[in-house]
Amino acid sequence: MDKIKMTTPLVEMDGDEMTRILWQMIKDELLLPFIELKTEYYDLGLIFRNETNDKVTLDSAEATLKYGVAVKCATITPNAERMGEYDLKEMWKSPNATIRAKLDGTVFRAPITVKGIEPMVKCWRGPVTIARHAYGDIYKNAELKAYGPGKAYLVFEAEDGTETRSLIHEFDGPGILQGVHNTEKSITSFAKACFNYALDTKQDLWFATKDTISKTYDHTFKDIFQEIFDNEYAEKFNCAGISYFYTLIDDAVARVMRDKGGFIWACKNYDGDVMSDMVSSAFGSLAMMTSVLVSPAGVYEYEAAHGTVQRHYYQHLKGLSTSTNSVATIFAWTGALRKRGELDKLTDLVNFADSLEAATLKTIESGKMTKDLALITTLEDVSTLNSRDFILAIRDQLLLEL
Ligand code: NAP
Ligand code: MG
């Protein structure tokens, strides 16, 4: 069989720990035998980020803007423990936050549903897709410690030198402070990305913030969404038979648990971060969720929503067997390859991505799966496979599909 050819390189962002191991296995067993894989490789593993003073992360984001499609492995966001473990020069920022700050945009996270893995929320009949704003808020904050009594102000200095200030708090002892921001431009592109995605996928769109408490900040999100909806999308939604609905974040959380699913839930950056973990876990596993960043410039970055699966990696280092689910990382690759194929008009590449996804789902449906799924499946006659054997089982199925 001739290998499938590519014309434009994918931006490949390698990562850390267990997902780095899976990354290589996926390439070796599921991609390289079938595709003349063309990638521009960036090593976002923590060791190389540290060596390059994190320049490699910025370079990979620049390359994404240049080529249009990237695929990213999970990476460590350093904390105090990692400083010692990796002998870091600095507590480098989260690569995802750096990349998202550069690309802007919205992260769409949809559960990967498969027969035999039923959602824990019994009323969910369709997927719940999270649309997470990928710019600003606490991910681009400025923080301070107040070391003793004093007054803290929020100050805006306009270009013409005029100043607006508002008292945050008068401290009578030590405390902490945080400043966050967002821009009308980014919120506008977030809103449009959500409305377009809802139209593309013919699903209702929900949006929720805490506008009753945050009367300027969150309320601006609400207003921008409403204005854009009324002016540009109300008609189109009507024709498509879908709806846009705004409510308070607490109300949304409660409603999601009673709804039948099959809608998109637009979330501010932090809400989307935590809610996507809740939603994916409720659909079975952190590893059963796709994640793609869609930027207003029309570039796409595909990734898994879960982390580097540190606990499994330490087992792997001890020579113990692991059963780590590679589905989200496989779907990051298929998402990126499909998009590359669509942009470059390479039907073979698009078809390959479809076949690999089908093979992955059929493997699970045939009872071969990793431990996270084996523990919750409704299927009988299940074999729990280790990380490598699961990928090899997918390869056997893929050979039947092609
Ligand atoms: P995690 O890697 O998401 O794993 C947390 C737990 O969830 C695992 O211990 C495992 O549970 C389960 N799990 C997650 N993915 C799984 C998979 N593919 N297959 C089977 N089980 C899976 O989160 P973490 O351990 O808290 O974080 C590790 C590192 O990842 C951190 O350094 C963090 O900074 C980084 N992180 C990166 C990203 C990203 O790059 N997108 C996102 C989040 C976190 P059991 O142990 O019970 O088996
Ligand atoms: Mg998260």
Tally the beta strands.
18
Strand residues, percent: 15-25%
Uncertain ranges: none
Distance between the termini: 10 Å
Radius of gyration: 22 Å
Mean pLDDT: 95
Residue share in helices?
40-55%
> Biggest sheet, open or closed, and with what strands and sense?
10 strands, mixed
What ions, cofactors and ligands are bound? NADP nicotinamide-adenine-dinucleotide phosphate, magnesium ion
Principal-axis shape equals globular
Structural class: alpha/beta
| Order of strands in the sheet with most strands | 4-2-5-16-15-6-7-14-12-13
List the helices and strands and how they pair.
Layout: E1 4-5, E2 10-14, H1 17-31, E3 35-36, E4 39-43, H2 46-51, H3 55-67, E5 69-72, H4 80-85, H5 95-103, E6 106-111, E7 128-133, E8 142-146, E9 150-157, E10 163-171, E11 175-179, H6 184-201, E12 204-209, H7 217-240, E13 244-248, H8 249-256, E14 263-267, H9 269-282, E15 289-294, E16 300-304, H10 310-317, H11 327-344, H12 347-365, E17 368-369, H13 371-374, E18 383-384, H14 387-401
Helix pairs in contact: 1-14, 3-5, 6-7, 11-12, 12-14
This protein binds NADP nicotinamide-adenine-dinucleotide phosphate and magnesium ion.
Could you explain how this protein is built, in words?
The chain is of the alpha/beta class and 402 residues long. Helices cover 44% and strands 22% of the residues. The chain has helices at 17-31, 46-51, 55-67, 80-85, 95-103, 184-201, 217-240, 249-256, 269-282, 310-317, 327-344, 347-365, 371-374, 387-401; strands at 4-5, 10-14, 35-36, 39-43, 69-72, 106-111, 128-133, 142-146, 150-157, 163-171, 175-179, 204-209, 244-248, 263-267, 289-294, 300-304, 368-369, 383-384. The strands form five sheets. The chain has a ten-stranded mixed sheet, with helices on both faces. A two-stranded parallel sheet has the order 1-3. β9 and β10 (163-171) form a beta hairpin. α1 (17-31) packs parallel to α14 and α11 (327-344) packs antiparallel against α12 (347-365). The N and C termini lie close together (10 Å). The mean pLDDT is 95. NADP nicotinamide-adenine-dinucleotide phosphate (NAP) binds next to α10.
